[in-house]
Amino acid sequence: MRRPASSTASTFPSAREISSDLSSLLSRDWANIEAGLYVAPEQQWPNPIRILKKARAYFRDLQKVNQRIVTGNSREVAHSLHNTSLPAYYLQNFHFQTDGYLSEASADLYDYQVEVLFSGGAETMRRQALIPLRAAFCDKNIRDVNVLDLACGTGRFMATIKQNYPRLAVSGIDLSAPYLRLAKQNLIHWSRFKLVHGNGESLPFSNESFDAVSCIYLFHELPRPVRRNVTNEIYRVLKPKGRLIFVDSLQPGDHPPFDSLLAHFPHATHEPFYTDFLNDDLEHLFCSADFKIHSLERAFFSRIMTLVKQ
Ligand SMILES: C[S@@+](CC[C@H](N)C(=O)[O-])C[C@H]1O[C@@H](n2cnc3c(N)ncnc32)[C@H](O)[C@@H]1O
User: Residue ranges per domain, the chain?
Assistant: First the structure.
C-alpha cells in the first residue's frame, strides 16, 4: 500500500480538496459526540480576547520563524545550551520554532501553531484517539485502569482524556520541562494525573504497569533508532494485551491525494526526521516488537493505529 516518499512533489491537492477533507473530519467528530462516544470539547467557544492575544503573539513570533526559514538556522537551541543531558537530536528548532521545545514562550505558542498548521483540525484529529482508547478499557473498572501519554507535550490530550474519564489515572511524560509546566496548568482542575520529566527511550516505569499508552505526533520527530527504542519501551511498560494508541502523520499511500504534500512538508519547515519517517515501515517496526496491529484508520492528515501487546 505504501509508496516511497519522493521530494519531487507532483500536483498538490487544492485548497478545496483539503477543506472538504477537514469538513468530513469535523462532521465525523460531531457525529461521535452526538453518539456519546466522547464529550464535546470544553472550550467550544473560547474567550475571544484570549484567542486574539494568542494570535498577536503568534504573528509576532512568525517574523523570527520566517527569518530562520530564510537563513536555514535550525541550531539556535543547540548553541544556547551547554552541559545538557538532553539527546542531541532534540536540540534543534523543530518547525523553526523559537527556542525549540525548550522555553515557556515556546510552550505557550505551541498549541496555537499546531492548530494553524492543520487549519484548525489538530485537536479534532487528536480527539479521534479517544475511540480506540475507550475500547482499550471498556471491559475494565475505570478506577483500576492506568494510561500513559508518551510525549504529552502541553497536556492537551491528557486534558481531553480527563474531561471524558475524570476517575481514570493518567500519567504523562515528556522531555520538555517547560511544556510539562504548561501541562500542569492545563490539568489544574483534575486529579489522578501525574507528569514526569523523562525520555521515552528509557521510561521510568516498571514492566507491565499500563493498560494503554497513547503516543501522539512523536515518531515523525525521532531518528529511526530512537523510534525503535521508544517502541520497545512502550512494549515493556504495557500489560499483556495492553494497547498502544498511535497517532502520527499519514504515510505515502494512506491517502494518495495528500502524498505530494507529505513529501513537500519537510522542505517547507524544519522536520529533520520526517522524510525518514515517511519511508519507515511502521507495520514492520511494531510487529518486530511483538505488537499485533488491531486497527488502522485515517483522520485528515493523521494515521491512527491501535496495536496490541502479544
Ligand atoms: C510534536 S510534539 C507532540 C506533543 C503532543 N503529543 C501533541 O499531541 O501535541 C512532540 C513532543 O515530543 C517530545 N519528545 C521528543 N522526544 C522525546 C523523547 N525521547 N521522550 C519524550 N518526549 C519526547 C517533545 O518534547 C514534544 O513535546
Answer: 20-42+122-309, 48-117
Per-residue pLDDT tens digits for 108-123: 999 999 999 999 999 9
- Rounded to whole angstroms, the Cα distance separating 17 from 245 reads 28
Binding pocket residue ranges, ligand 1, CB within 6 Å: 90, 101, 126, 151-153, 156-157, 173-176, 179, 199-201, 216-218, 221
Distance of alpha carbon 3 from the chain centroid = 23
CA of 175 to the centre of ligand 1 (A): 7
| Domain boundaries 20-42+122-309, corresponding CATH code | 3.40.50.150
| Strand, helix or coil for residue 303 | strand
Q: What is the mean pLDDT of residues 80-96?
A: 86
- Is residue 217 within 8 A of residue 179, CB to CB? The reply is no
pLDDT of 4 above 70: no
